[in-house]
Design a protein that fits this description.
The radius of gyration is 22 Å and the shape is elongated. The chain has one domain: Orthogonal Bundle (MetI-like fold). Helix 8 runs antiparallel to helix 10. The protein is 84% helix and 0% strand. It is mainly α.
Length: 249
Protein backbone atom coordinates (compact mmCIF):
# COMPACT_ATOMS: atom_id res chain seq x y z
CA UNK A 1 0.00 0.00 0.00
CA UNK A 2 2.83 2.39 0.81
CA UNK A 3 4.42 1.65 -2.57
CA UNK A 4 1.17 2.45 -4.37
CA UNK A 5 0.84 5.76 -2.54
CA UNK A 6 4.45 6.62 -3.38
CA UNK A 7 3.83 5.86 -7.07
CA UNK A 8 0.57 7.79 -7.28
CA UNK A 9 2.06 11.24 -7.87
CA UNK A 10 4.66 10.09 -10.46
CA UNK A 11 1.94 8.17 -12.30
CA UNK A 12 -0.31 11.22 -12.46
CA UNK A 13 2.57 13.39 -13.69
CA UNK A 14 3.51 10.86 -16.37
CA UNK A 15 -0.08 10.63 -17.54
CA UNK A 16 -0.36 14.42 -17.72
CA UNK A 17 2.89 14.67 -19.65
CA UNK A 18 1.76 11.89 -22.01
CA UNK A 19 -1.46 13.77 -22.82
CA UNK A 20 0.39 17.07 -23.22
CA UNK A 21 3.03 15.58 -25.53
CA UNK A 22 0.44 13.84 -27.69
CA UNK A 23 -1.69 16.95 -28.13
CA UNK A 24 0.11 20.26 -27.58
CA UNK A 25 3.62 19.01 -28.29
CA UNK A 26 2.81 16.59 -31.11
CA UNK A 27 4.87 18.54 -33.66
CA UNK A 28 7.71 19.44 -31.31
CA UNK A 29 11.32 18.31 -31.86
CA UNK A 30 12.03 18.74 -28.14
CA UNK A 31 9.16 16.82 -26.52
CA UNK A 32 8.16 13.17 -26.75
CA UNK A 33 5.50 11.27 -24.81
CA UNK A 34 6.67 8.83 -22.15
CA UNK A 35 5.32 5.94 -24.23
CA UNK A 36 7.71 6.86 -27.07
CA UNK A 37 10.55 7.20 -24.56
CA UNK A 38 9.73 3.70 -23.28
CA UNK A 39 9.95 2.28 -26.81
CA UNK A 40 13.28 4.08 -27.35
CA UNK A 41 14.50 2.64 -24.06
CA UNK A 42 13.59 -0.84 -25.25
CA UNK A 43 15.54 -0.34 -28.49
CA UNK A 44 18.62 0.86 -26.59
CA UNK A 45 18.28 -2.12 -24.28
CA UNK A 46 17.98 -4.54 -27.18
CA UNK A 47 20.94 -3.26 -29.22
CA UNK A 48 23.27 -3.23 -26.19
CA UNK A 49 24.07 0.49 -26.27
CA UNK A 50 22.38 0.98 -22.90
CA UNK A 51 24.65 -1.49 -21.12
CA UNK A 52 27.81 -0.33 -22.87
CA UNK A 53 27.31 3.34 -21.98
CA UNK A 54 26.14 2.52 -18.44
CA UNK A 55 29.15 0.30 -17.79
CA UNK A 56 31.55 3.04 -18.88
CA UNK A 57 29.89 5.70 -16.72
CA UNK A 58 29.66 3.46 -13.66
CA UNK A 59 33.26 2.33 -14.07
CA UNK A 60 34.51 5.90 -14.27
CA UNK A 61 32.30 6.89 -11.33
CA UNK A 62 33.54 4.04 -9.13
CA UNK A 63 37.21 4.56 -9.96
CA UNK A 64 37.07 8.33 -9.51
CA UNK A 65 35.16 7.99 -6.25
CA UNK A 66 37.64 5.39 -4.97
CA UNK A 67 40.60 7.67 -5.64
CA UNK A 68 38.94 10.83 -4.34
CA UNK A 69 37.48 9.15 -1.26
CA UNK A 70 40.70 7.38 -0.31
CA UNK A 71 42.74 10.56 -0.55
CA UNK A 72 40.09 12.72 1.11
CA UNK A 73 39.47 10.37 4.03
CA UNK A 74 43.16 9.80 4.78
CA UNK A 75 44.04 13.48 4.63
CA UNK A 76 40.88 14.36 6.57
CA UNK A 77 41.88 12.00 9.37
CA UNK A 78 45.32 13.57 9.56
CA UNK A 79 43.92 17.11 9.63
CA UNK A 80 41.26 16.14 12.14
CA UNK A 81 43.70 14.58 14.57
CA UNK A 82 46.59 17.02 14.11
CA UNK A 83 45.35 20.60 14.67
CA UNK A 84 48.71 22.08 13.68
CA UNK A 85 48.48 20.43 10.24
CA UNK A 86 44.90 21.66 9.86
CA UNK A 87 45.94 25.24 10.57
CA UNK A 88 48.88 25.04 8.18
CA UNK A 89 46.75 23.71 5.31
CA UNK A 90 43.62 25.80 5.94
CA UNK A 91 44.36 28.50 3.33
CA UNK A 92 45.37 26.05 0.62
CA UNK A 93 42.24 23.97 1.10
CA UNK A 94 39.92 26.97 1.14
CA UNK A 95 41.46 28.29 -2.07
CA UNK A 96 41.30 25.00 -3.99
CA UNK A 97 38.03 23.59 -2.65
CA UNK A 98 35.69 26.13 -4.34
CA UNK A 99 37.18 25.49 -7.80
CA UNK A 100 34.37 23.90 -9.89
CA UNK A 101 35.37 20.44 -11.00
CA UNK A 102 34.05 21.04 -14.52
CA UNK A 103 36.47 23.95 -14.84
CA UNK A 104 39.26 21.35 -14.83
CA UNK A 105 37.92 19.60 -17.94
CA UNK A 106 40.10 21.60 -20.39
CA UNK A 107 43.20 20.98 -18.26
CA UNK A 108 42.38 17.28 -17.89
CA UNK A 109 41.89 17.00 -21.65
CA UNK A 110 45.32 18.56 -22.26
CA UNK A 111 46.99 16.23 -19.80
CA UNK A 112 45.13 12.96 -20.40
CA UNK A 113 43.27 13.43 -23.69
CA UNK A 114 39.82 11.92 -24.21
CA UNK A 115 38.80 8.76 -22.42
CA UNK A 116 38.54 7.14 -19.04
CA UNK A 117 41.59 8.68 -17.38
CA UNK A 118 40.45 12.23 -18.09
CA UNK A 119 36.99 11.59 -16.68
CA UNK A 120 38.30 9.78 -13.61
CA UNK A 121 40.66 12.65 -12.78
CA UNK A 122 37.82 15.19 -12.76
CA UNK A 123 35.58 12.91 -10.67
CA UNK A 124 38.39 12.29 -8.18
CA UNK A 125 38.93 16.04 -7.79
CA UNK A 126 35.21 16.65 -7.28
CA UNK A 127 34.79 13.93 -4.64
CA UNK A 128 38.06 14.60 -2.83
CA UNK A 129 36.92 17.83 -1.14
CA UNK A 130 33.60 16.76 0.43
CA UNK A 131 35.20 13.55 1.65
CA UNK A 132 38.08 15.56 3.11
CA UNK A 133 35.84 18.04 4.93
CA UNK A 134 33.47 15.41 6.32
CA UNK A 135 36.29 13.05 7.33
CA UNK A 136 38.08 15.89 9.09
CA UNK A 137 34.91 16.79 10.99
CA UNK A 138 34.36 13.13 11.90
CA UNK A 139 37.94 12.75 13.15
CA UNK A 140 37.57 15.82 15.35
CA UNK A 141 34.50 14.29 17.00
CA UNK A 142 36.20 11.05 18.03
CA UNK A 143 35.93 10.50 21.77
CA UNK A 144 39.29 11.63 23.26
CA UNK A 145 39.26 8.66 25.64
CA UNK A 146 39.52 6.28 22.68
CA UNK A 147 42.71 8.00 21.55
CA UNK A 148 44.02 7.87 25.10
CA UNK A 149 43.38 4.12 25.20
CA UNK A 150 45.24 3.69 21.89
CA UNK A 151 48.19 5.64 23.30
CA UNK A 152 48.15 3.65 26.53
CA UNK A 153 48.18 0.38 24.58
CA UNK A 154 51.06 1.74 22.47
CA UNK A 155 49.33 0.78 19.25
CA UNK A 156 51.17 1.37 16.00
CA UNK A 157 49.81 4.10 13.70
CA UNK A 158 48.26 1.50 11.40
CA UNK A 159 46.64 -0.38 14.31
CA UNK A 160 45.39 2.87 15.78
CA UNK A 161 43.86 3.81 12.44
CA UNK A 162 42.19 0.45 11.73
CA UNK A 163 41.14 -0.49 15.28
CA UNK A 164 40.25 2.85 16.86
CA UNK A 165 39.93 5.78 14.46
CA UNK A 166 38.06 4.35 11.47
CA UNK A 167 35.53 2.29 13.52
CA UNK A 168 34.73 5.41 15.55
CA UNK A 169 34.28 7.45 12.35
CA UNK A 170 32.39 4.81 10.37
CA UNK A 171 28.79 6.13 10.71
CA UNK A 172 29.85 9.62 9.59
CA UNK A 173 32.02 8.19 6.82
CA UNK A 174 29.00 6.46 5.33
CA UNK A 175 27.19 9.80 5.21
CA UNK A 176 30.21 11.22 3.38
CA UNK A 177 30.21 8.22 1.04
CA UNK A 178 26.57 8.73 0.06
CA UNK A 179 27.30 12.37 -0.72
CA UNK A 180 30.41 11.40 -2.67
CA UNK A 181 28.52 8.82 -4.74
CA UNK A 182 25.93 11.41 -5.80
CA UNK A 183 28.59 13.96 -6.69
CA UNK A 184 30.63 11.39 -8.62
CA UNK A 185 27.71 10.34 -10.82
CA UNK A 186 26.68 13.94 -11.55
CA UNK A 187 30.23 14.92 -12.49
CA UNK A 188 30.68 11.79 -14.64
CA UNK A 189 27.57 12.53 -16.70
CA UNK A 190 28.53 16.22 -16.95
CA UNK A 191 32.03 15.41 -18.23
CA UNK A 192 30.55 13.04 -20.80
CA UNK A 193 28.12 15.67 -22.02
CA UNK A 194 30.78 18.37 -22.21
CA UNK A 195 33.89 16.61 -23.45
CA UNK A 196 34.15 12.83 -23.28
CA UNK A 197 32.65 10.84 -26.19
CA UNK A 198 31.67 7.90 -24.02
CA UNK A 199 29.04 6.95 -21.46
CA UNK A 200 25.49 7.94 -20.62
CA UNK A 201 26.11 11.68 -20.80
CA UNK A 202 27.44 11.37 -24.35
CA UNK A 203 24.40 9.25 -25.29
CA UNK A 204 22.09 11.98 -24.00
CA UNK A 205 23.93 14.62 -26.04
CA UNK A 206 23.89 12.51 -29.22
CA UNK A 207 20.15 11.93 -28.86
CA UNK A 208 19.62 15.68 -28.45
CA UNK A 209 21.76 16.53 -31.48
CA UNK A 210 19.91 13.90 -33.53
CA UNK A 211 16.58 15.53 -32.66
CA UNK A 212 15.41 12.32 -31.01
CA UNK A 213 13.63 13.54 -27.86
CA UNK A 214 12.21 10.10 -27.11
CA UNK A 215 15.68 8.58 -26.84
CA UNK A 216 16.95 11.60 -24.91
CA UNK A 217 14.14 11.26 -22.36
CA UNK A 218 14.80 7.53 -22.14
CA UNK A 219 18.44 8.19 -21.25
CA UNK A 220 17.46 10.86 -18.75
CA UNK A 221 15.06 8.44 -17.07
CA UNK A 222 17.68 5.69 -17.03
CA UNK A 223 20.26 8.05 -15.49
CA UNK A 224 17.79 8.79 -12.70
CA UNK A 225 17.16 5.08 -12.16
CA UNK A 226 20.90 4.37 -11.98
CA UNK A 227 21.40 7.21 -9.49
CA UNK A 228 18.55 5.95 -7.33
CA UNK A 229 19.93 2.39 -7.37
CA UNK A 230 23.42 3.55 -6.39
CA UNK A 231 22.08 5.64 -3.51
CA UNK A 232 19.88 2.75 -2.34
CA UNK A 233 22.88 0.43 -2.43
CA UNK A 234 25.00 2.85 -0.41
CA UNK A 235 22.18 3.22 2.13
CA UNK A 236 21.79 -0.56 2.41
CA UNK A 237 25.54 -0.90 2.94
CA UNK A 238 25.39 1.75 5.66
CA UNK A 239 22.56 -0.07 7.47
CA UNK A 240 24.36 -3.41 7.18
CA UNK A 241 27.58 -1.98 8.60
CA UNK A 242 25.67 -0.27 11.40
CA UNK A 243 23.91 -3.51 12.34
CA UNK A 244 27.19 -5.42 12.27
CA UNK A 245 28.87 -2.85 14.52
CA UNK A 246 25.91 -3.06 16.91
CA UNK A 247 26.13 -6.84 16.98
CA UNK A 248 29.86 -6.74 17.65
CA UNK A 249 29.36 -4.18 20.41
Amino acid sequence: MKVLRALAVPAVLLLAFELYARQVGAQSDAIAPPSAALRAFGRALADGSLWQATAFTLGATALGLLIGAAGGVLLGIVLGLVPRAARASFLSIEVLRPVPSVALIPLAMLVFGFGLTMEVSVIAFATFWPMLVLAQAAARQIEPRLLEVAAALQLSPVSRLTQIVIPAMLPRLFVALRLGVAIALVVAVTVEIAANPHGMGYAIMIAQQSLDPALMLAWLFWTGVVGYAINAGALALQHAATRRMGALA
